[in-house]
Amino acid sequence: xxxxxxxxxPLLGGNEIKYVTEAVQTGWISSNGKYVTQFEEAFAKxxxxxxxxxxxxxxxxxxLALTALGIGKGDEVIIPSFTMIATAFAVxxxxxxxxxxxxxxxxxxxxxxxxxxxxxxxxxxxxxxxxFGNPCNMDAICEIAKKYKLFIVEDAAExxxxxxxxxxxxxxxxxxxxxxxxNKNLTTGEGGMVIMDCEEKYTKCKYFKNMCFxxxxxxxxxxxxxxxxxxxxxxHAAVGLAQVEKADAYRTMRINNALLYKKYLSDCKGxxxxxxxxxxxxxxxxxxxxxxxxxxxxxxxxxxxxxxxxGIDTRLLFISMNRQKSLKDFGCECSGEYPVTDWLxxxxxxxxxxxxxxxxxxxxxxxxxKEYQK
Length: 374
Ligand SMILES: Cc1ncc(COP(=O)(O)O)c(C=O)c1O
Known about the structure:
CATH architecture of the largest domain: 3-Layer(aba) Sandwich
CATH topology of the largest domain: Aspartate Aminotransferase, domain 2
Distance between the termini: 23 Å
CATH superfamily of the largest domain: Type I PLP-dependent aspartate aminotransferase-like (Major domain)
Strand content: 5-15%
Number of helices: 13
Structural class: alpha/beta
Number of strands: 14
Strand order of the largest sheet: 1-9-8-5-4-2-3
Order of helices and strands: HHEHEHEEHEEEEEHHHEEEHHEHHEH
Largest sheet: 7 strands, mixed
Bound molecules: pyridoxal-5'-phosphate
Mean pLDDT: 97
């Protein structure tokens, strides 16, 4: 097998062309169009919540969610140190400060035993991130939030269709956000969604996303608050609707990828997988492995180089939030120790994870990894 295997590529296997063509042919290409509403309704239903507001990416989805909760300057928001920078930046956009908590060594999600020590009188919210599609322990997080009267904003950017105790991620919190970037389990190319059960927060999201124009009634150019243009186009929503129609099938494909990687690497020493959250359904957005260089015989960087030579694409993992110059300059407390996050960054990477991967491709990747082991 000589073909290059990318780390991820979108699977657009349903009604995407039909719906996008219809949007083009009817001229409804901006944010006014039936697909935006249909995508919002279908996605809300899929997640088991009442409302959804489509936006132009997953980063602004978090910002809009925090804005709807009234979070701003002087507030603190707890986030995992092991996450994509978007989680932290979205908090900074509000003027609030992100406060970091290390990852759990098994699930790689926020370590729920370390959250309480970071709570101060300024703490307003916790943002659990369901890393790589593995749901967080929402029992523990909801209990802490209740005890300290904090909001929860799930950053579900990576976890479309993941479940905890049979409930979908995004449905546990006051408000939650998703990303539909091209590598996500469901995609619109660029896109995001905010979901919630509360009608008031829903109205606020619609209001702030559209420059604080009145949500209902005639479009008058009088603006009482500072708003944003976070609208999703009807073209993107057309793709999104077609993706939601296939959501269960795509979820199964990602889960199967993970099962195959585990099966074919089961006899390879020094390879560590993410542990599924107890009572959770991990949808395996990205198949990530962590290398124990002593047991495996090579470092992560050596293995990445070898895979590249063999035409197999990989990606590095996030660098801890406390090591980001941008966040230090913003005034975040960056001095603590985040050993699990550092261990993940140092030793882990993503393997190819597209929904469309074949068993033959996964077996080939695993053989290359096994053959290279010393
Ligand atoms: C955890 C997390 N949050 C937020 C985002 C931001 O989403 P987007 O790239 O759509 O802005 C991502 C993107 O990958 C992510 O992984």
